[in-house]
Specification:
Elements: H1 6-16, E1 19-24, E2 29-33, H2 39-51, E3 54-61, E4 64-71, H3 87-111, H4 119-147, E5 156-159, E6 168-172, H5 182-210, E7 213-215, H6 216-220, H7 234-241, E8 250-252, H8 256-272, H9 279-288, H10 290-306, H11 310-322, H12 337-353
Antiparallel strand pairs: 1-2, 2-4, 3-4, 5-6, 7-8
Helix pairs in contact: 1-2, 3-4, 4-5, 4-8, 5-7, 5-8, 5-9, 8-12, 9-10, 10-11
Length: 363
């Protein structure tokens, strides 16, 4: 495919917009346009330019709307030990095996206190639950991206530390297209946590059903019983309450399925923080712009420190210094009103999923 000429670029831009002026340099071409209703037209133009190996931005300067056209940077092609298409498959297989092992030993741990079932059976259910939560989360991103005609990679599942920690650190996808405007940035960001949350809620109710409870007298009979304490969230409390569990003078023994749900709620909460390039960070960037998003990132780091998640707080803080936010090609058009209203619901969801200290719950 031959490289587009200046005449091709001028013709393409002129087919979408009324061009009032033009400036050409060795690095870029810049067009001044007069169209005030440019949002949807620019989406079509950006998609067309990307297919031509070009990228365009729209900026506002002294009351003038300017479209800047540049060449896309060349893709790096380094030596790869395995084909790129195999990387997500191998990672997926590793994560599934890690989750299976983790589920097996978690069931053995619960069985040592009170028998809940065959460890292999629970390991399989645990794997379907946890990998399903992560997979549906990433599927939400992919579906939203496809709706907006964006290309993405398959999910990359990140292995964790089974038995001694958590078996997976989540999953991610890579965008292979450019994010055109704030609406698209918001839609792709919100789709993952909402899709994953639906599955997490379903898993939490089944997990609550499979989790036994011990009363004070039974607990006192174990001289060396050490129960792992994890901060609950409101949605987890509701799931346990549906079965009359989690009341005073009792202790819920978390089954592997309920632990999968707990991880799902934690992942949802972390992703909804208005920080860095998390899903919530992309939403905050789309609504408030770069400067307020930067302050929101630092505020999120403070919240994580208060909730005793120092590792995640430091991770966000360090990486946000290098790359704070994702900038859409059209950073002039504001986010639509309906999406701003929807973000209020996202804040509420984040609060419902937040792991809260035991001290705030009524005794």
């Amino acid at each position: 495919m031959s490289e587009p000429t200046q005449e091709d670029v001028i013709s393409t831009v002129s087919s979408f917009f009324d061009v009032r002026g033009m400036a050409v340099t060795l690095e870029k071409m810049e067009f001044e346009i007069s169209d005030l209703d440019f949002k949807q037209k620019f989406v079509l133009l950006a998609q067309k330019m990307e297919s031509m190996g070009l990228v365009c931005f729209i900026n506002e300067s002294h009351g003038r709307l300017l479209i800047q056209v540049n060449r896309l940077p060349p893709q790096r092609r380094g030596f790869k030990l395995i084909p790129k298409s195999w990387t997500p498959r191998i990672l997926f297989a590793i994560v599934v095996s890690f989750v299976m092992v983790d589920g097996y030993y978690r069931t053995l741990g619960v069985n040592s206190i009170i028998f809940i079932g065959d460890p292999l059976d629970f390991a399989i259910l645990y794997t379907f639950s946890l990998v399903g939560i992560l997979g549906v989360h990433e599927a939400g991103h992919i579906i939203a991206a496809r709706i907006h005609k964006l290309r993405t990679s398959w999910p990359y599942f990140i292995p964790g530390i089974p038995v001694f920690g958590i078996p997976t650190f989540g999953a991610l996808i890579q965008s292979r297209s450019l994010t055109i405007n704030r609406d698209i940035l918001f839609d792709v960001a919100i789709a993952g946590p909402i899709a994953g949350l639906v599955i997490t809620i379903i898993v939490s109710f089944y997990g609550a059903y499979t989790s036994p409870i011990l009363d004070e007298q039974t607990i006192a009979g174990f001289s060396d019983l050490r129960l792992e304490k994890l901060n609950d969230n409101i949605l987890m409390k509701l799931a346990l309450g549906a079965y009359g569990k989690g009341g005073p003078n009792t202790e819920v023994i978390m089954s592997p399925i309920l632990f999968a749900a707990w991880l799902g709620f934690l992942i949802t909460f972390l992703n909804l923080l208005p920080a860095w390039q998390l899903d919530g960070g992309h939403m905050a960037r789309a609504i408030f712009g770069q400067r307020i998003h930067q302050f929101a990132t630092y505020g999120s780091v403070g919240v994580l420190f208060l909730l005793d998640y120092q590792f995640m707080a430091m991770f966000i803080l360090i990486f946000s210094i290098r790359n704070m936010s994702a900038r859409p090609l059209d950073d002039v058009s504001p986010l639509s009103k309906n999406r701003k209203i929807l973000y209020v619901g996202i804040i509420i969801v984040a609060m419902l999923c937040a792991p809260l200290p035991d001290s705030i719950w009524p005794k």
